[in-house]
From TrEMBL:
<dbReference type="InterPro" id="IPR000595">
    <property type="entry name" value="cNMP-bd_dom"/>
</dbReference>
<feature type="domain" description="Cyclic nucleotide-binding">
    <location>
        <begin position="11"/>
        <end position="132"/>
    </location>
</feature>
<dbReference type="InterPro" id="IPR018490">
    <property type="entry name" value="cNMP-bd_dom_sf"/>
</dbReference>
<dbReference type="InterPro" id="IPR014710">
    <property type="entry name" value="RmlC-like_jellyroll"/>
</dbReference>
<dbReference type="Pfam" id="PF00027">
    <property type="entry name" value="cNMP_binding"/>
</dbReference>
<protein>
    <submittedName>
        <fullName>Crp/Fnr family transcriptional regulator</fullName>
    </submittedName>
</protein>
Length: 189
């Protein structure tokens, strides 16, 4: 079960066999059913999740009661609500499985302990955060600098399998458009 996460980590840093064993002893594997929440608004986020299999989304509910997708977590991607995770304050977001998923969870306190025992893990998580931040900036660029049609075409060109995998209304929310408009764009093909 830990093969995927260790393979991912090895793309960034080198671990000894003893360090791999120590790391995996701190991870918890969770099977998450489709539509099940890992986190709800108002709860404190205590875990960072590596998606082994499946698809997870982060979203919030706007004052108008609309779900706004902020981020997706696919295989080999970390997802958590960092504000709550780092501060210990209640979250304003939800984390939910879109498909049946398997995640490897690491508790915040354990992660800090691991950084002391395996210092190069800090480098790994820094690089993971840099990639996540870059992905968020790309999304923001799409929303503010491209038309809705251009945003969709970029997503379709770069991530065709992902676009087909995600429910249309969630993809529309992520791209900052209505599901009806996305449906119209898809019909244009």
């Amino acid at each position: 079960m830990f093969t995927e996460i260790l393979t991912h980590i090895k793309k960034f840093i080198t671990l000894t066999a003893a360090e791999e064993e120590l790391l995996t002893s701190y991870l918890t594997i969770k099977e998450v059913k489709k539509k099940e929440h890992l986190l709800r608004e108002g709860e404190v986020c205590h875990e960072n999740y590596f998606v082994v299999k499946g698809l997870v989304r982060m979203y919030l509910i706007t004052p108008k009661g609309v779900e706004q997708v902020i981020q997706f977590g696919i295989e080999n991607w970390w997802i958590t609500e960092y504000n709550s995770y780092k501060s210990g304050q209640p979250s304003g977001f939800y984390l939910q499985a879109i498909e049946n998923a398997t995640v490897a969870a690491i508790n915040r306190n354990v992660q800090e302990e691991l950084f002391e025992k395996i210092p190069q893990l800090e480098k790994y998580f820094r690089q993971v955060l840099e990639r996540a931040y870059s992905a968020q900036l790309t999304r923001i660029h799409y929303i503010f600098n491209l038309t809705s049609e251009e945003s969709y075409k970029q997503m379709l060109q770069k991530y065709p399998a992902f676009v087909q995998r995600v429910p249309q209304y969630m993809l529309a929310s992520f791209l900052g458009m209505t599901p009806e408009f996305l449906s119209m764009l898809r019909a244009k093909k």
